[in-house]
Task: inverse folding
């Protein structure tokens, strides 16, 4: 793929509408626009007819019952579903006005610009330093690597804890530290969007709060989309919330999307209210 395929930037204005997915506002400040998205595993449709616009430099939470397609949705944002042989995607995911599923787009480049952090921290069995440096090195980074590693570890609020042991294995860190290392690794390649699939669900409450604080810091610079099972977490950390549910064929669909404050205090749909008040899911 030509390096500049994904580099066109849309001219953007601040976007203040409550329901960005539904109002079709022109000139919205979107990082990603999903249009008519369907993802199948073989014959099974896991998510159907999704239209969703993700606000730039905000935190968007995706919530919904187990199996409704939250992880599938998140992986559709950076073509990670392609790593599943049976998976098939229809529709468009626009990033910088370009459909990332177009034939001339390199999925590796997509994943560099739209990074991902997983539920279970998964550092490489390499040093802390190398965990952060590796991705930029294979991208041909020729600058000051020490500076880059330090910057990414500082951004991930991990530097002070590891600066004296950068040569130790990433696997020697605690779970919460490992997750922050994975976040440092994700941001070291300077993505625009960071996708997080239940990033704190394997962590204790203190480590969870650290990750949430970190997300608030990161949104100054990055767009974050986070899947969470934890309603309090969604309400605490996110600016926007997308609530997904399943139909009778277990296909996931978007029920309601809007400002988190509004969605949690005054949901439009009965299903949203039932879910956020713990009546199902
Ligand atoms: N690799 C796969 N092969 C086949 N079916 C899959 C695959 N991954 C997910 N599915 C199915 O797609 C649907 C959506 O799964 P997904 O993991 O996206 O849901 P989820 O909302 O993230 O669930 P959870 O909250 O439990 O993580 C489920 O019915 C699941 O069984
Ligand atoms: Mg999931």
Result:
């Amino acid at each position: 793929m030509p390096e500049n395929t994904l580099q066109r930037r849309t001219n953007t204005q601040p976007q203040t509408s409550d329901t960005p997915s539904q109002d079709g506002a022109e000139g919205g400040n979107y990082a990603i626009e999903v249009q008519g998205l369907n993802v199948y595993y073989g014959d099974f449709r896991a998510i159907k007819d999704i239209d969703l616009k993700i606000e730039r430099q905000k935190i968007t939470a995706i919530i919904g019952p187990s199996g409704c397609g939250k992880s599938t949705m998140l992986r559709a944002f950076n073509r990670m579903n392609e790593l599943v042989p049976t998976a098939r995607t229809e529709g468009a995911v626009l990033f910088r006005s370009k459909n990332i599923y177009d034939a001339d787009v390199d999925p590796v480049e997509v994943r560099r610009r739209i990074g991902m952090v997983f539920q279970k921290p998964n550092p490489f069995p390499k040093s802390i330093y190398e965990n952060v440096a590796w991705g930029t090195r294979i991208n041909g980074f020729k600058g000051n690597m020490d500076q880059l590693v330090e910057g990414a570890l500082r951004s991930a609020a991990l530097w002070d804890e590891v600066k004296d042991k950068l040569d130790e294995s990433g696997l020697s860190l605690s779970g919460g530290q490992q997750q922050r290392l994975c976040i440092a690794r994700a941001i070291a390649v300077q993505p625009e969007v960071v996708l997080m699939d239940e990033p704190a669900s394997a962590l204790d409450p203190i480590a969870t709060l650290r990750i949430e604080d970190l997300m608030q810091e990161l949104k100054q610079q990055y767009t974050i989309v986070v899947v969470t099972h934890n309603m309090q977490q969604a309400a605490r950390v996110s600016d926007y919330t997308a609530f997904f549910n399943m139909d009778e064929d277990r296909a996931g669909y978007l029920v309601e999307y809007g400002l988190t404050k509004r969605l949690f205090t005054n949901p439009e749909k009965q299903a949203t209210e039932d879910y956020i008040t713990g009546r199902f899911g």
